[in-house]
Amino acid sequence: MKITVAKPDLESALKVVNLAVGNGGNDLSTHYLFRSTDDGAEVLAYNKRIFASSPLTCVVDCEEEGPAQFTAAAWRVGRWLEGCRDGALSLLCKDKSVKLIGARTAIRCSTLDSTKFPFWDEGLGNANSIGSVNPANLANTVSHSGKFTAEEDTTQPQLAQIEAREGAIWASDRYAVSMVDTPSTPEMTIRVNTKDVSSLVRYLTLVEHDVEVLEDAKASYFRCEDGSVFGVARPPVQFPKLNIDREAEPAASFELPMEDLRDAILQLSAGAAKEDKVMNIRHDEGNILLSMDADGVEGHCEFPITGSKIVNGEVFDSGFDVEYNYLQSIGASFDLDTLTFGVHPIGKGGYLSFRHSGESTEDNPNNYYTVIVWKT
After folding, report:
1. Which neighbouring-strand residues pair with 34?
2. pLDDT band at 362 (very low <50, low <70, confident <90, very high)
3. Would the pTM of this model clear 0.90, i.e. be above it?
4. CA 35 to CA 17: how far, in whole Å?
5. For 321, phi and psi rounded to 5 degrees?
6. Largest pairwise CA distance in the chain
7. Alpha helices (H) in the chain, listed in sequence order
8. Phi then psi for 13, rounded to 5 degrees?
9. Which residues are bridge partners to 274 per DSSP?
């Protein structure tokens, strides 16, 4: 099998598929698989729970009848391609080896048994189409949700993922809960492991056209109009059903300017224990006072924020503790100068709430709702 392709076309296909290439070793998860199709060829890759494919605009010459295929180590193809100048390139598989041919030289490399590649043709062919989404909107939704998942998928597998249900994507690590509406695809039930969220986000930011979401019992598939596909295996454990009252009115509210929050975290954390992220927030005579316990000495360090809008500040005169990394995560998701939080005391504890209407159309707003439980 011989593939003749222009360098830009090969680069374009590999840019997508490389997202699913594994690192280390020399097994099929570290190789690209090139396969002939009725329209030319496609490139595929997989690694653990994720997989990807992209059509390749090229000319294919095959000696045998029917589809032909071969593999080549992804890092070798990438390095070779980087050293080639624009023009026609060839990939030739013959006699159990692959020759990568440029204008000035050719290199030989080994190939693996492509018949053992875990193709997903049947799953994709039988998957249920949920609808099409704007990839940038979904990328922002998934990225924000992924910041509030648990990291351990062995001790807390039900929380080490994001899951779509009843028109919203949910995430939680027990101390924070994130819900983002997905009104354009209310039937979507994708479930993505924490470790795969960043790869899915990268795919969604690469493609330029609407993405069709397809699902079956084992995986979720994201297929772009250009023919590329990115897939993630579905974790077997369901995300827990949480009772969150999104309509609950806060007893108080306050604003946090992002610049002040950034400065406060840097300065206060410099005086706190290195791994300490617990910050106290309280109302103090019309101002917001942030503080953290000092490390190695008695007392705490304080950072006052003046001039912020505060409603019913007396409700949190005694203050409450939250981990500041949650505040940072919310700030990183949105291009906002100021964050507005609701204060919800409950018994001896309580929580903060944050609302935001993100990218949307008139009919399909993407409403973000995040809850941060106080440390007690």
Report:
1. 43, 70
2. very low
3. yes
4. 13
5. -105, 135
6. 83
7. 7-17, 74-83, 121-126, 135-146, 194-206, 258-271, 324-333
8. -70, -45
9. none
Domains of the chain: 2-116 (3.10.150.10), 131-233 (3.10.150.10), 252-373 (3.10.150.10)
**Could you give the CA distance from residue 129 to residue 181 in angstroms, rounded to a whole number?**
19
User: What are the tens digits of pLDDT across the range 51-63?
Assistant: 999 999 999 998 7
Residue 175, SS3 per DSSP: coil
Structural contact between residues 146 and 197, judged by C-beta atoms closer than 8 angstroms: yes
Question: What is the C-alpha separation between 97 and 28, in angstroms, rounded?
Answer: 15
- The single-letter DSSP state of residue 294 is P
Give one DSSP letter per residue of 62-96, joined into a string. -SSSS--EEEEEHHHHHHHHHHPPSSEEEEEEETT
CA distance 223 to 203: 10
Q: Which helix (H) or strand (E) holds 20?
A: none
* CA–CA dist 184, 211 (Å, integer): 12
Contact 253, 342 (CB under 8 A): yes
Nearest 5°: phi and psi at 119? -65, 150
Distance from C-alpha of 248 to C-alpha of 97, rounded to nearest angstrom: 65
Gap between the Cα atoms of 326 and 147, Å rounded:
8
What are the backbone dihedrals phi and psi of residue 262, each rounded to the nearest 5 degrees, phi first? -60, -50
> How far from the centroid of its chain's Cα atoms is residue 149's Cα?
11
Q: DSSP assignment of 214-248, as one string? A: EE-SSEEEEEETTS-EEEEEPPSSPPPP----TTP
Question: 94 φ, ψ to 5°?
Answer: -155, 140
Q: What is the pLDDT of residue 15?
A: 96
**In the numeric block, which tokens belong to residue 107?**
């290199």
Candidates 374, 329, 357, 10; CA nearest to 147 is 329
